[in-house]
Amino acid sequence: MFLRWMVNSYLRQTAQRKLQQVVGEALQGRRPVAAEGEEGAPAEPTPPCAAALVFGSDLESGGFVDTLADSQATRCASYVEFDGRRGERRLVVVQAGMGATAARRAVEDAIAFLQPQWVVSAGFAGSLDEKLKRGHFLMPDAVANEAGEELAIGLKLDAATIEATPGLHTGRLLTIDRLVREEAQRRELAQQWGAVACDMETMAVAQVCREQRVRFMSVRVISENLDHALNRETELLLDQKSMAGKLGVVAATLLQRPSAVKDLWQMREEAIKLSDRLARFLGGVVDQLS
Description:
alpha/beta, 290 residues
């Protein structure tokens, strides 16, 4: 989760602004009345949405968006969507924003607009178990939060399936509202909640799906190992409460160690590789949904 936060906070802001230009000026509705150059054109009938795939950020969703045919981007009131196809099926990627509050609002709106047959919470997760390594996949059978709430997902992966798919795991996914900095904190969360990984959105998505009676599942790729450690510069960055303070730490870091730019961009490249890896696995899962 830290990898996503770092890259999304500092390296993707320009791309985010460009995306907003591409999809148009802050649309309040789900779609423009007519496409560019087709003013007044009647809307084509929209086929049913087989699945809405909910991601926290464009960093996580980018790999899967690239797999969609005829993808069209639209800025909605509470999320950005990419509406496209895999084969004959219509799929919509929902970029909800980071955190449970953003995820809940986006999923409520997406279900109302899209009426998907399935909702899939996807993206990065941090390991809470040494068996789950960076690049491994988690398809949780339950999701919980620190308020003590838990929802069973109903997913059953037998031992043969897991054994035949290297790097695939199941277990409880814990949704939290903060970044976890130290291995000791991760081990404490694992012991307290019996979770094998943590993220920042899935419980909120699952709760909305339960309320709306929409079928739900989650697929996560592990972005940080259990023993992932933050360096001193990153610790200072996280301690800053304001954007000005964060930018000040970044500026000071670059002055003292110009090579930090290379490190940040390397983190971005690693995140893109994880997104692509997730996309390949997620595509195989979604293609089997009925």
